[in-house]
Amino acid sequence: MAQPLMPHATASWLVDNTALSFEQIAEFCGLHILEIQAIADDTAATKLTGRDPVRAHEVTQEEIDKGQADPEYRLVMLKGPEQVRRTKGPRYTPVSKRSDKPDGIAWIIRNHPEISDGAISLLIGTTRTTIAAIRDRSHWNIANITPKDPVTLGLTTQRELDAAVAKAAKAAGIEAPVDTRLEGDREALITELRAQREQAARVESGEGASTTPAEPTAETLFRR
User: CB–CB of 123/160 below 8 Å?
Assistant: First the structure.
């Protein structure tokens, strides 16, 4: 399925400017719903600048209106940008995030020991030597390494991580773990996040400002 040229930036814009559900945005942008929730809750690794898909001629306003009117409706792109496939070799990681790699590697080793060093290397963009050093705790900075979700750190996407876990589980002959973090209370969580965003917007616009009288100052007291 075609995806926007800049899926995370597009998702950020759709979260801020439309009433589309997280599921609709996730499917349109080709992202995991947890990534959309992180963007909506401002817990993404980096603050994103929204990209308007209407101005980019990737979707029409009429299509967005259809989605807002029907939560079950799935948006259709006007055109799909030329997808750039990543060539073989290590994944490029921005300099600002390279110090986070050991934490992401440690998290995968702890939570998904079935994933091979080669798969971790491709997923995060690191060397097998570094992974082995973290695995056997001989890494020079092991005392300061704290396991952290590589998706939260922005080192990979939830879909890529899920695919690596599923592939490793299949190779090992075990059942791939199922993400149950949203089961049962997904709608409640989405409603809560949306309410928090609306409240924050009201406060910023002054609508939600406190009506409690200000503390009297010396100037106001003397005026009386």
Answer: yes
